[in-house]
Description:
- By secondary structure, this protein is α/β, with parallel strands linked by helices.
- The chain has two domains: 8-159, Rossmann fold; 169-290, Glucose Oxidase, domain 1.
- It is built from eight helices and 13 strands.
- It has helices at residues 14-19, 37-46, 86-99, 120-130, 211-215, 225-228, 244-247, 278-290, and strands spanning 8-11, 50-55, 58-63, 73-76, 103-106, 134-138, 157-159, 169-173, 179-183, 198-200, 232-234, 252-256, 273-276.
- It has a six-stranded mixed beta sheet with strand order 8-9-13-12-11-10, covered by helices on one side.
- The longest helix is centred in the N-terminal third of the chain and has 14 residues, at 86-99.
- The mean pLDDT is 86.
Amino acid sequence: xxxxxxxxxxxxxxxxxxxxxxxxxxxxxxxxxxxxxxxxxxxxxxxxxxxxxxxxxxxxxxxxxxxxxxxxxxxxxxxxxxxxxxxxxxxxxxxxxxxxxxxxxxxxxxxxxxxxxxxxxxxxxxxxxxxxxxxxxxxxxxxxxxxxxxxxxxxxxxxxxxxxxxxxxxxxxxxxxxxxxxxxxxxxxxxxxxxxxxxxxxxxxxxxxxxxxxxxxxxxxxxxxxxxxxxxxxxxxxxxxxxxxxxxxxxxxxxxxxxxxxxxxxxxxxxxxxxxxxxxxxxxxxxxxxxx
Length: 292
């Protein structure tokens, strides 16, 4: 008999404890989520309605999970400093079957796909389906390239990444009055009444760093703060979290997209940023190379 009032949290670590030399921190010897992944996944699946949500004023509205009225159980099988142990994964599947859940959301995927009969996720999900449960699995975080999908057992529902039908835009207006669109969750923008000089990170390198290394903006020690102060810094990378650029005196950061296959990923920053679309980046780079 299915328990329609089911709600709770459980954890499984006997397999991990038997095969690992890593000790479990006593404060996390529970169903508590130390990394945030489980909390994020659970709220995406069944988070309640929360009105008045925004990120620095972007995306105003009511947020919720896919099934906000659902009752949930969290099964923790992964531990700090280790992979998810097969024995613990299988124990959690069996517990879910015994507990009488209807749907299992499986946000786990190994890096090395195995034959079904050697894969604990395949075995556990098959047993769950045989017992009448629906198993929904993550497809992994890679792609779009061939052979990057994980959890492709025919008895589970495997869901790939998706996106919303709206964009968060921060426009860039150049000195020739051309306006380009970029992705951003910036808290603020620059004054439209003033022009700001731009500097490519490759030209803002310190004396002991090559221009090529500095261009990707991976480390603030690669950039000379005197060169970027009061200017807009141009980083030739996908959108990274360069909060240090503001600390060094830059007034903003622009990221031209040089690869059409890279998905733009706006991050919330407190100062003006814009991750330009690939179609606009070619014009932007041409403009930058032809004018001061």
